[in-house]
């Protein structure tokens, strides 16, 4: 059964929604783990690294933590799959380098890119809201198996510039930043807590349920659900 939405924009989660969580966990996480030490040493004066390291020190309550201690904290958060902003910032820097070198190519489910292009073609704006940093999102969409997809995307949001993904206020911030009324926004995610927060902010929300993904068995609560993007028909009225 198809789901029909007349909206001005679709906001996309990445892991479990556009792309396989397994790729992130099995490919990107180990890649970043193996390069934390080099990043903290070689780019210690980089403003983004300086800010992220300060955030790590604040979160662990150790203002004088050295690079070894910071790396240990990052690895512990990685083991926990914790959505810590400084972890995501540093991962994003590492992944951006990896994509630029050609070490990495991102993953998209086969049904995603054709629909993104179709929605974009009818005037629906596309945004990304992921726990991964904006830098990581940009690298992800730039280095897809289908080529550079950034021309399809009007904006990128993460937990730093929008806020936590399970809080309605974050979705209100995005609506305000895009200038789009909440009722004209559609959010796609595999996580029920995120869908709940989007709906609380007045958005439309659809749960993406893909077999093999971590949240598949849990389901998406009382939200509309789709197994693939081609089950979602998106249009934009001009009246």
Write the layout of secondary structure elements.
Layout: E1 3-6, E2 9-12, H1 21-33, H2 36-42, H3 47-60, H4 67-80, H5 85-101, H6 112-121, E3 125-129, H7 134-142, E4 153-157, H8 168-178, E5 185-189, H9 192-200, E6 204-208, E7 224-226, E8 232-235
Parallel strand pairs: 1-8, 2-3, 2-5, 3-4, 5-6, 6-7
Helix pairs in contact: 1-5, 2-4, 3-4, 3-5, 5-7, 8-9
By DSSP, the count of extended strands is: 8
CA radius of gyration is 18 Å
Uncertain runs are none
- What do the pLDDT scores average to? 95
Strand content: 5-15%
Structural class: alpha/beta
Oligomer: single chain
Describe the structure.
The structure is a single chain. With 239 residues, this protein is of the alpha/beta class. The chain is 44% helix and 15% strand. The chain is built from 9 helices and 8 strands. It has helices spanning 21-33, 36-42, 47-60, 67-80, 85-101, 112-121, 134-142, 168-178, 192-200, and strands at residues 3-6, 9-12, 125-129, 153-157, 185-189, 204-208, 224-226, 232-235. A 6-stranded parallel sheet has the order 4-3-2-5-6-7, with helices on both faces. The mean pLDDT is 95.
Quick tags:
239 residues, alpha/beta, six-stranded parallel beta sheet, 15% strand, globular
């Amino acid at each position: 059964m198809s789901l029909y939405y007349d909206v001005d924009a679709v906001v996309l989660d990445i892991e479990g929604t556009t792309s396989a969580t397994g790729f992130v966990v099995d490919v990107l996480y180990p890649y970043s783990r193996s390069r934390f030490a080099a990043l903290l040493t070689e780019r210690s004066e980089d403003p983004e690294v300086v800010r992220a390291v300060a955030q790590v020190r604040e979160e662990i309550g150790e203002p004088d933590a050295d690079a070894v201690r910071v790396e240990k904290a990052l690895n512990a958060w990685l083991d926990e799959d914790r959505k810590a902003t400084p972890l995501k910032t540093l991962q994003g820097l590492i992944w951006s380098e990896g994509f630029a070198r050609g070490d990495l190519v991102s993953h998209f489910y086969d049904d995603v890119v054709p629909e993104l292009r179709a929605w974009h073609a009818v005037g629906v704006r596309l945004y990304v809201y992921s726990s991964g940093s904006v830098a990581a999102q940009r690298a992800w969409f730039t280095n897809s198996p289908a080529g550079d997809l950034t021309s399809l995307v009007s904006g990128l949001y993460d937990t730093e510039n929008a806020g936590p993904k399970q809080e309605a206020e974050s979705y209100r911030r995005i609506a305000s930043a895009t200038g789009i009324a909440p009722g004209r926004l559609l959010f796609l995610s595999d996580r029920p807590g995120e869908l709940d927060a989007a709906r609380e902010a007045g958005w439309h929300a659809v749960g993406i349920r893909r077999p093999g993904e971590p949240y598949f068995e849990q389901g998406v609560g009382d939200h509309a659900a789709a197994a693939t993007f081609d089950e979602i028909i998106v249009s934009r009225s001009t009246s």
